[in-house]
Amino acid sequence: MIEPEAAVPAPPEGFVPAPVRGGFAAHNGPFFVRDLGGEVVERAVYGLPRHCNGLGLIHGGLLSALMDMTLGDAVIRAVRQRALTGSLSVDYLRMTRPRCWIIAEAWISRRDDGGVHAEGRARVAGREVARATGVFRLMGAS
Asked: How far apart are CA 131 and CA 63, in angstroms?
């Protein structure tokens, strides 16, 4: 049985609703962002019952999507150009339950001919629940 939808509480301090860029984010959010003013970017989502798998835990697909968006945000901020995910690797470290804030952070680790490399992590209540690395291809580049 699917739990009734929970209300999304006010986001953690400094987070504001993220601009919705497409149907996927609109359907799977709401997502929030916090501008730290530096090279690290942050994005958050409140785990709702609809984000859960059959075991009642947050689905890895939500964590993967959150990491992909957050790493992509770091790339866009660093290069001031749109980019596409070329590869994404996510390590799931802990089970994540609904009705909690999942906060992801990401930064650029290097740039080379293969693209822009980013890495990041997601936390719940200060505990790391996922790590991710990705390579992003700049749009318009071969």
From this structure: 10
